[in-house]
TrEMBL record:
<protein>
    <submittedName>
        <fullName>PAS domain S-box protein</fullName>
    </submittedName>
</protein>
<feature type="domain" description="PAS">
    <location>
        <begin position="121"/>
        <end position="187"/>
    </location>
</feature>
<dbReference type="InterPro" id="IPR000014">
    <property type="entry name" value="PAS"/>
</dbReference>
<dbReference type="Pfam" id="PF13426">
    <property type="entry name" value="PAS_9"/>
</dbReference>
<dbReference type="InterPro" id="IPR035965">
    <property type="entry name" value="PAS-like_dom_sf"/>
</dbReference>
<dbReference type="Pfam" id="PF13188">
    <property type="entry name" value="PAS_8"/>
</dbReference>
Length: 204
C-alpha cells in the first residue's frame, strides 16, 4: 500500500474515512472531512475519539473482519457523539505485513429519518384501518382476504384465522354477486351505491 497515494485518494472523499490499528485501536489516519468533525486525532484511540467511550466498543467490527479478512463488513450505526446515522463499510488492508482497518462512513441520517417517518405513517394507517368503527377489508381478485379490521370480524363473527380459510364469495348469499361486483369494478374502476346481500358466519 502506497501511503501517499492512499492520502491523495481519501483526503478528497466527501465522506469520513479513517485507518486504525485493530490490535490497539490507535487511529493512524483520518481524512479532511473527519478531521473537520473531530479535530486532529491521529495517535488517539478510535473508541474515545469517535464514540466518547473509555474502552473498545462492544459493536466493533474487528471480530467480523478477522473471521474473513478478505471480505468487507457493512453495517449501520448511530454515532451517539454527534447523533448521526452512518452506513459503515469496513475492510482490512495489509501494510508492512499486518492488518489495518479501513472504514468509510456514509452519512445516511436523512434516509433513516425518512424511513422512520414512513414506518410511523404505515403504523398510523394500520391503527386507523383496524379501529375505525366501520367494517373494512381487502381481498385479491380471487377473493382471498388480505386484511380485515375489527369491525368486520365482529359483524360477521369470523376470527382472523377464519378469514384466512374462507374467500370473499363465502360471505355472499348469491356467490355470483361477487363476480358481478368484480366485473363492475374492472369496467368503471369503482363501485357506488351497489347493494349486495351478505351473510354472517352463522348464516344470518
Amino acid at each position: 500500500m502506497n501511503l501517499e497515494l492512499f492520502r491523495e485518494i481519501f483526503d478528497n472523499f466527501v465522506e469520513p474515512v479513517y485507518l486504525v490499528d485493530p490490535e490497539n485501536y490507535t487511529i493512524l489516519y483520518v481524512n479532511k472531512v473527519l478531521k473537520e468533525k473531530f479535530g486532529e486525532c491521529v495517535g488517539q484511540k478510535c473508541y474515545y475519539v469517535f464514540q466518547n467511550l473509555s474502552s473498545p466498543c462492544n459493536f466493533c467490527s474487528n471480530k467480523y473482519l478477522y473471521r474473513n479478512p478478505e471480505k468487507p463488513y457493512i453495517w449501520l450505526h448511530k454515532n451517539l457523539k454527534n447523533n448521526r446515522w452512518y452506513k459503515c463499510i469496513d475492510q482490512f488492508i495489509k501494510y508492512n505485513g499486518k492488518f489495518l482497518r479501513l472504514e468509510i462512513a456514509i452519512d445516511v441520517t436523512k434516509e433513516i429519518i425518512k424511513s422512520n417517518l414512513l414506518k410511523e405513517k404505515v403504523k398510523e394507517y394500520a391503527d386507523l384501518f383496524e379501529n375505525v368503527p366501520v367494517p373494512l377489508y381487502r381481498t385479491t381478485l380471487e377473493g382471498k382476504f388480505i386484511k380485515v379490521n375489527k369491525a368486520m370480524r365482529e359483524l360477521f363473527g369470523y376470527s382472523r384465522k377464519d378469514f384466512q380459510k374462507i374467500k370473499a364469495e363465502d360471505l355472499y348469499y348469491q356467490p355470483q354477486d361477487r363476480k358481478k361486483f368484480i366485473k363492475r369494478i374492472e369496467k368503471f374502476g369503482y363501485v357506488e351505491d351497489y347493494e349486495v346481500r351478505l351473510k354472517t358466519k352463522d348464516g344470518r
